[in-house]
Specification:
DHBP synthase, 11-stranded mixed beta sheet, 11 strands
């Protein structure tokens, strides 16, 4: 049975974070608030949990899941290398609304979908999300909605779509504007913006010191 915790109140917040951490470690799904919209998350290193996440969203592996981290340094263990351009974006926008695509470390045993050897990583600007991520490590996270339906801006909206497929819902109040993160692909020779979201292409170009093109 799903449990909803009101993270605006103690001890619900502490109890909720503990329950969510336990659920993630057990390979179950949780819903968390982020600085964009609510996210449905799972242990990034559990292929079974990630498949359950995709099933809950009614989505296939052709739309791979990104990874959220709780600190800048976590990225070093997840990718093949961290180029200067990635460091520049991390320093300028993390925690915040920029997702970075890089070749993942070949030693990692995970299955996030059809990623072609890359991983999309972001550090969210939300205290509840960051606290959970620092407790359990990197999580595979996607928007908390059934594919094709509006993204959830509240825990109640997420629960109305995802129901009992999620073990723990962490209610952090209404999310901010439902604007997705900006995705910057750094896996090739030149940076490419795959999606312009909350951070403009002009701001990305300024941070990198050169003009960046859209895909």
């Amino acid at each position: 049975m799903s449990v909803v915790y009101d993270c605006a109140r103690e001890p619900d917040r502490s109890d909720g974070l503990a329950a969510a951490a336990s659920a993630v470690r057990a390979g179950r799904l949780v819903v968390i608030p982020t600085d964009t919209v609510y996210g449905i998350g799972a242990d990034a290193f559990s292929s079974t949990a990630v498949r359950a996440l995709l099933t809950a969203k009614n989505r296939g592996p052709d739309m791979p899941v990104g990874v959220l981290v709780g600190s800048w340094s976590t990225i070093d263990g997840l990718v093949l290398s961290v180029p200067r351009s990635a460091r520049q974006l991390i320093e300028a926008f993390w925690p915040g609304d920029v997702s970075i695509v890089l070749p993942h470390a070949p030693s990692l045993s995970w299955d996030l979908g059809n990623t072609s050897g890359t991983v999309m990583i972001r550090m969210p600007l939300h205290p509840v999300a960051i606290e959970l991520l620092r407790e359990v490590g990197p999580m595979a996270v996607s928007s908390a909605n059934v594919s094709g339906q509006p993204p959830a801006a509240t825990a109640d909206e997420a629960k109305s779509q995802l129901g009992e497929s999620v073990a723990v819902y962490l209610d952090g109040g209404p999310s901010g504007e439902p604007v997705p993160s900006t995705i910057v692909d750094l896996s090739g020779d030149e940076p490419v913006v795959l999606r312009e979201g909350a951070v403009s292409v002009a701001a990305i170009s300024e941070a990198l010191g050169s003009e960046v093109r859209m895909s």
